[in-house]
Each structure stands twice: as C-alpha cells, then as structure tokens.
Amino acid sequence: MWRYFFTFCILQLVNSYLYGQETHSDFKIDCDTNVYLFAEYKDSLPFYEKHFGRNKKINIRDKKLKLAFYVALRHYPELKDVHMKVDLKKISATMMAQPTPGFLFHKQENRRYQIFVNKTKANNGMYYKDLTFNSQVGWIGHEFAHILDYTQKTNKQLFIFISKYISSKKELKKTECEADRVAIRHGLGKQLLEGVNYFYNNNRVSKAYREKKKSYYLSPEQIEIEMAENCE
Ligand SMILES: [Zn+2]
Hints:
The chain has helices at residues 2-15, 38-41, 45-52, 63-73, 133-151, 155-167, 169-200, 207-216, 220-230; strands spanning 56-58, 83-89, 95-99, 112-118. It has nine helices and four strands. Strand 1 (56-58), helix 4 (63-73) and strand 2 (83-89) form a beta-alpha-beta unit. The chain has a four-stranded mixed beta sheet, covered by helices on one side. 53% of the residues lie in helices and 9% in strands. The model is unreliable at 3-29 (pLDDT under 50). The protein has one domain (2-14, 34-230). By secondary structure, the protein is α/β, with parallel strands linked by helices. The chain is globular and about 45 Å long. Helix 1 packs antiparallel against helix 6, helix 6 packs across helix 7 and helix 7 (169-200) crosses helix 8. The structure holds zinc ion. Residues 142, 146, 176, 179 line the site of zinc ion.
C-alpha cells in the first residue's frame, strides 16, 4: 500500500511547491492509567463527540471502536484540533495511519490524516473486533503516535520519511518501536501491553504477521522496561 502511496507522492512532488516550517513539541504525560472497560464508557459517546470531536470524522459504526478512539485521544492533547478521519479498509495490518494523499499541496499546519482499520478477518488473523476495549485504546494510541510524529515534520521531511519507511527495514523498525515508546510516554503502556500479549498468545494470528510484529515492534518485556523507565 505504501508503494502506491509513494508513487503518488513522487507525482505530487514534481508538481508542487514544498512548504516547510519545523515545529517541536514536548509530550510528557502521567503514565499512571487504569484498565479501560467498555462497560464504563458505553454511554459516554455523545460527551466525547461533543468535547473531543473537533475535526474528527469516524466513518465506522462500531461504538466500541469510536469510544476507544476518543479515550486514546484524551492521552494526546497535542492532537485535539488535528484533522483526522477513520475508515475501514482491507489492509495487511490491524491499523495504519498516514497523511491524506495530496498532503504536499497543503501547508504542514493544514495537513489531514487518516487511520485505516482492517475490515477483514481473513487478512492477518488480527481483527480489531477481537481486541478488548482496553487493547483497542492502546492500538489506536500507537497510531496517534505516528500522527503526532507526522505533524512535527515539514512536507519535505515527511516525504523523505515515507521513502525511507517503505525502503528500509531498519527505518521501519525504528519508527514502529518509537511509536510504541511515544504511546507509553502518553500513558498507554498498559493498554499496549495487553494488546501485544493477546497478539503473542493468539493462535488465530498468522505466523507471518506474528513474526513481523515480533521483529518490528517492542516485545512485552521491552514495553515493561519502557514503562518502568517512563512511568514512575
Ligand atoms: Zn505503527
């Protein structure tokens, strides 16, 4: 999928002017969170949509996933006003986040982002509906870490990043592990850990996807070390 996206980006690069303005942000947040239970949030969707729905469009009916999105979003105040939409799509991962096609035509501050959630059970055996609410919050928190990273990149930096991400396994691993670390530093270590543990012990996950996850993402042990270091 990134390959097509990259080709699209090259075409845009030829035809567009690259905007650029570097920004930095600091995101130290208390890591002491509890386990999120859907039963405790199931009536809160109208509240979340009213107070946190600015510039967010979730094109998925699943109430549990919508709420997981907003609960994770509360851990990322930096993304409060960022334009995002969420769609179901047949993809080879459980979820993925990216800038919308055409991002090179927009200024960095006007960029929009999309999160795709895999809509088919057969693709990799890791179906979002199989995850607990708490794990979904962690999983989406990982995607938010990617979006936060994108928001801090100029168009030129983002373009270079995408080309490296799709061509270098080393870069892919660095990016995915860093996204896990950022999610942990945003207080979602326990949520991430629950999802990864489920993933490691779920026989329905295809071997290929399991191996990929093991080589590119933090292991349960590494997550626990990161939590111990970041969440005092
Ligand atoms: Zn990722």
